[in-house]
Amino acid sequence: MTSISIAAAASTTFIVLEYLVKIVAVGVVPENRRPSSSTAWLLAILFVPVVGIPLFLLLGSPYINRRRARIQARANEILAKGTEAVPSEPESLSISRELGGIVELSRSLTALPMVTGTNYGVLSDYRESIDRMTALVHQAQESVCVEIYIMARDTTTEAFFQALEDAVRRGVTVRLLLDHMGSRKYPGFRDFLRGMTEAGIDWHLMLPFLPLRGKARRIDLRNHRKLLIVDGKTAVMGSQNLIESTYGSAKNLEIGRHWHDISIQLSGEIVSSLEAIFAVDWYSETDEIIDIHAYRLEGEEIVEASDVLPNVHGPTPDVGGPVNGVQLIPSGPGFRTDPNLRAFTSLMYMARERLAIVSPYFVPDESLLAGVITAAHRGVRVELYVSEVADQFMVDRAQSSYYQALLDAGVHIMLYPAPAVLHTKCFIVDDTCAVLGSSNMDMRSFGLNYEISLLSYGGDIVGQVREIIDDYARVSTQLDPHHWARRGVVRRYTESVMRLTSALQ
C-alpha cells in the first residue's frame, strides 16, 4: 500500500468517525436537557469537535452520580412520609387559591410544606450579619450546624470561628460543611482546615473533587447553600458567604469592590425544614445519619427560640403578631424537577402590580424569561436589579444579552453602582410574597448548584425584603433603552457568544 493510499484511508476513516460522532451526538445530547442547552452543546460538538467532545464528556452529563441521586430520592420519600400529618399551609393563614397551588407544587417536588416561622430580622449589613451568627453560636447549648458555600478564616470571620471553637470546648457538637471547589481557591485553605480539625470541629467538604482518593465527579457542580442552625431552635440563611466582603482580593480592596448580601434569622417550625436539608447534605458527605427535630404543629406548645437564644442584632419580632407563612424550597442536581425554577416562574405569573427581582446573575431559561416578559406586557411594573458591572466578565456579557428583550417589554433594569457587587438574591411579588436565599436567576442555579430559597407570605418578612429592595432603588440608576441600543458591535458580539456558552450545562 502506497503512502498516498494510506493517507486516503486515514482521511476516510477520520471523516467516517467524525460523522459517526455527530450522528450519535444528535441523538444523545438532547436527552433530559433544556433546548437552549442542547443547542449550545450540539453547536460546540458539530463545529468544534476537538473542543466540544472533551468538554461534553467532562461537563455534559445532566446527572450527578447515582449515589447522590439515590440519597435525594430516598430523603424525599422519608420527608413525604414524615410530613403526612402536616398541612400544606398553616391553618392560621388565608392563602389565595393561586398561591396555594404554588405551595402545593413546591411540596410535591420537595416534600416540604409551608409552615410558620418567627422573623428576627432581614439584614443587609455584611458585618452585622456575621456578628449576628457569631452571637448565636456563643449562645449554643447543644449543637451548631453550619453549611456555607464559601468559607475563609480572615479578619472579618475570625470571631465566628473562635465562637465555634469556644462552643466545642463547652461540649457543643459542631458540624460544618463547606464546598470544596468554592472555598479551596482562597488563601490559607489548608491551614484553615487543619485548624478546625485541631479545634475539634467536625468538618467535611461538600462535593469534593479528589480523584486520587476515588472522589471524582463533574467539576462544575457546587453546593451553593448558606445556612446556620443552632440547637435546632433558630437558624440563619440567605445569600452571604463566610468571608470578608472583598473576597480576599487586593484588587477588589483597591478599587472599593465589596459584596452586598442579605440574611434572615428565623425560629419556629421552619427550622425543622432547614435541619432536614442539612441532614441530607451531611449524610451525602459522611454516611452519618443525624437526628432532626419534628415539626411542632399549630396548637401545640412551642418553645420559642427567644426562650433560649435572645434576639441578636435585628428587629425584635412580634411573637403575637401576624404569622409568617414560610416554605423552604431546596433545589439542585439531586432533584430532577427544578423546584426553584418551577416555583419562581409560577410566582412571576402571579404578579399583578409589581414584580421586583434582585439577582447578581440573571441568565434565565426560556420559561423564566417568558414569565418576566409576560408580566411586563400584562401591565405589571417589573424591576430587575443587577450590578452595573458584574464581578465575572462572562456573566456580565451573558446577562446583558437579555437586556434588549427585557427593555422592549417595558422592564425597568436598575443598575447598582459599580464597583459594588449586588450579590443579594431575592424578589417580591406585589406586597404579597417574597423569596430570598442562595439561588440566582440563572441556569447554573437551576441545574448545577444545590440551593435553598425561602418563600414567605404574610407576617413581616415581605415588608422587610421590600424595604431593602427600595433601598437598592434609591442608589441605582435605570438603564436608558436609547443609550443601550447604541452599544458597539464588539459588545453585542461578546454578549451573543457568552449567552451561548452560558447554556453549556
UniProtKB/TrEMBL annotation:
Keyword field contains ATP-binding = no
Q: Has keyword Transmembrane?
A: yes
Q: Where in the cell is it found?
A: Cell membrane
Q: Which SUPFAM superfamilies match?
A: Phospholipase D/nuclease
Its Gene Ontology molecular function terms? cardiolipin synthase activity
Record-linked Pfam families: PLDc_2, PLDc_N
- Listed name of the protein: PLDc N-terminal domain-containing protein
